[in-house]
Amino acid sequence: MSEIKYPFFLLPPKSPEYNCNVERANGTFKYELFAQYKYPGNFDLLQVKLKKFILFYNSKSLYYGITLLTPFEFYELIKNGDQKSHMC
Fold first, then answer.
1. Residue 69, strand partner residues
2. Could you report the per-residue pLDDT of 71-82, keeping only the tens digit for each?
3. Is there a contact between 78 and 67 (Cβ–Cβ < 8 Å)?
4. What is the pTM for the complete model shown?
5. Whose CA is closest to 67, among 53, 83, 81?
6. Which tens digit of pLDDT belongs to each residue from 43-60?
């Protein structure tokens, strides 16, 4: 099996000017998930809760910034060419 090489970039913490999407996701997890639950060393439980949270966040939560759609619904509009992304 051949080894696939990807470039690795180490970004400084709290640097949205380098990758705002990662910073936004980290903030969402920190303030909307981790602040509500304590996971002292239970990584299996954390993984289950994180998967459920991501599914809820993307498929059930409505957001004003994307005209009261879920992120999944907004993504489908972009993918189908019915909407231009505000990120471009």
1. 63
2. 899 889 888 887
3. no
4. 0.61
5. 83
6. 888 888 889 999 998 898
